């Protein structure tokens, strides 16, 4: 038996066992902790049951019903974890306990380059430097497991049908995930944390493209030379047309005759459909 200590705060009327919540999941792993969460993609179900008592006063779990959102709200309030309503800024697309999505319009902002192996012939980024460059509109998708960074094709609030593009930011992986390195992560998945997430993307030093990033732009020279050109000529607008549609497995070879990958949209990302 595991050794756990549970302490209840005393109340005037005392505490009585009134309900039990049972959690079910498909194909449980016997060696897993009893407190482990369900594996990603595993089916799960929860039911809530009243507590009854036998003739000797011992508690028995009674017949239950499916756990509903109403049940969750009631027990959240009873446990003192009520989430206060808040006004959403115009740039927020999704505000959920497990997901926060927002967009930012295009703008010129300082960028920080310290390339570990700069290609020959660079005009502005051959040495460690901070220089203003234009960024395309972006969408960010923060979850409890990380931050996704994506470019948008037009400078307007996206809809569920808006296609997404690969971000040109150098410390973004091919699958859209930010490479955190030693960047401090926000402690809360909250609207108040949005500036911290954005600073992690735009105020960190770019040292090299991540594997496969050179495949995310069209034209000659690749991603580093594109940034070098924008910085050298003090461009005011990012050439969004050079960014390829977001394809997380772009490095994987496609078999002859295979259909082109489906367009990934804002709605696809939010639903987790890729």
Describe this entry's structure for a reader:
With 274 residues, the chain is α+β, with helices and mostly antiparallel strands. It has two domains: 60 residues, no CATH class; 168 residues, no CATH class. It has a five-stranded antiparallel beta sheet with strand order 5-6-9-10-11. Strands 1, 2, 3 and 4 form a four-stranded antiparallel beta sheet that branches. The chain has a three-stranded mixed beta sheet with strand order 8-7-12. A hairpin with a 2-residue loop joins β5 and β6. The longest helix is centred in the last third of the chain and has 11 residues.
- The 3D shape can be described as elongated
Spatial strand order of the main sheet = 5-6-9-10-11
Mean pLDDT value = 86
Largest sheet: 5 strands, antiparallel
Amount of helix: 10-25%
Q: Give the structural class.
A: alpha+beta
- Distance between the ends: 41 Å
Count of alpha and pi helical runs: 4
């Amino acid at each position: 038996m595991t050794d756990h200590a549970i302490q209840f705060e005393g109340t005037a009327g005392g505490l009585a066992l009134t309900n039990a919540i049972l959690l079910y999941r498909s194909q449980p792993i016997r060696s897993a902790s009893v407190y482990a969460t369900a594996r990603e993609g595993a089916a799960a179900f929860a039911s809530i049951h009243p507590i009854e008592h036998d003739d000797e006063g011992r508690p028995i779990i009674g017949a239950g019903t499916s756990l509903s959102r109403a049940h969750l709200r009631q027990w959240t309030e009873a446990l003192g974890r009520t989430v206060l309503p808040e006004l959403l800024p115009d740039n927020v697309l999704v505000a959920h306990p497990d997901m926060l999505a927002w967009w930012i319009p295009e703008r010129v902002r300082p960028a920080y380059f310290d390339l570990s192996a700069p290609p020959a012939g660079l005009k502005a980024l051959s040495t460690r430097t901070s220089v203003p460059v234009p960024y395309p509109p972006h969408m960010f998708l923060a979850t409890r497991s990380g931050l996704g960074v994506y470019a948008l094709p037009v400078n307007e609030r996206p809809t569920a049908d808006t296609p997404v593009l690969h971000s040109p930011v150098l410390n973004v992986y091919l699958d859209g995930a930010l490479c955190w390195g030693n960047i401090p992560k926000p402690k809360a998945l909250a609207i108040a944390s949005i500036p911290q997430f954005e600073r992690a993307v735009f105020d960190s030093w770019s040292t090299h493209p991540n594997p496969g990033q050179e495949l995310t732009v069209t034209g000659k020279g690749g991603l580093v030379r594109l940034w070098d050109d924008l910085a050298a000529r003090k461009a005011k607008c990012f050439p969004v047309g050079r960014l390829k549609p977001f394809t997380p497995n772009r490095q994987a070879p496609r078999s002859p005759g295979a259909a082109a990958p489906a367009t990934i949209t804002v709605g696809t990302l939010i639903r987790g459909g890729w």
